[in-house]
Amino acid sequence: MEPRNSANPSPQLPKTAYSVSQVTTKKKRSQGKIRLNHIPQTLASTHPLNANFDSAHLTIGAGVAIFHVATARVVLCYHPVLKHWFLPKGRRDVNEETARGAEREGFEEVAPRPHQIPYPCNIPADDRPCHKIFKSGYRNRLLPIPIRHRQPDPQSSSSSSTKPHFVTEPVWTQLAPVSDFSQYHLFWYITETVPPEIEASMPPPIQGNSYQQPAAYPKEMTLSQRIALEPEGYEPPRHENSGVDTDEALYEPTLLPVESAIEKLRESSVSADVVRKGWATIYLRREIEDNDRLK
Question: How many angstroms separate the CA atoms of 47 and 211, rounded?
Fold first, then answer.
């Protein structure tokens, strides 16, 4: 299959109930104003708190919503024993950057057995940041998106520009007890399936081998250009043997439409809001880029 016709500068993103339209008038386009404070969010953040954990009592993990942008689908995993859907997540490795750990956990990991999940019963299953979750088998990489955040950006001058920057910061963070003596800190990121050319350039995963990180999303590439790298009807491959446990054969991750994924994750859960916010900001990035192209 050949890539899409690059002569079309603006292939359309599929529109969903969670696609946010922020650029709606000619006046707004001419002024270049894009607002980020109306991204749909159904959950409120917890009030800020003071808490202290030494290294022996803290586990840091990361999870991802892996989007196939061209078809408005996201990777979901299903646990047939616990009978619930969830996003890939797990512990980062020692000395590993958390964002890189998020990509790796989205691609590989092991499945939990029911008796290995030590969370209190009052924590909903969809919001348990379990530290042993199986792989999805989909290669993925961080996708820069326009989100509100509080991290300093030395390359940006808020007084001279109204254009939001695309960042790869976590969209949600969760704290949950692993036990009476250990705390779990989970960061949620937005990633995308990798283009066919990168898939073809990487060797197949071999169980037990170290994780190979795909090339990062190019800084100057627009979403339109990214979608054009895929032929019509392209399906991102799911790799076997990317995890480290034979029990993983019992589980089948799958790409689901955004609306269906949010419903299966329970609309009021953090996981569902990760998907909701992820797709809304992807759609918003596309509108920002279209706005810049029309100037």
Answer: 37
pLDDT for residue 92: 93
**pTM higher than 0.90 for the full model?**
no
For 3, how many CA atoms within 13 A lie in the half-sphere containing its CB? Answer: 15
Here the contacts of 179-186 (C-beta below 8 Å, separation 24 or greater) are 179/118, 181/57, 182/57, 182/58, 182/59, 183/51, 183/53, 183/57, 183/58, 183/59, 184/59, 184/61, 184/129, 184/131, 185/58, 185/59, 185/60, 185/61, 186/60, 186/61, 186/62, 186/63, 186/89, 186/129
Tens digits of residue pLDDT in 54-76 = 999 999 999 999 999 999 999 99
Cβ-contact 90, 109 below 8 angstroms: yes
Cβ-based burial of 22 (10 A; exposed 0-12, middle 13-18, buried ≥19): buried
Cβ–Cβ < 8 Å for 100, 287? no
* Torsions phi, psi for 207 (to 5 deg): -55, 130
Answer positive or negative: Cα dihedral of 148, 136, 266, 20: positive
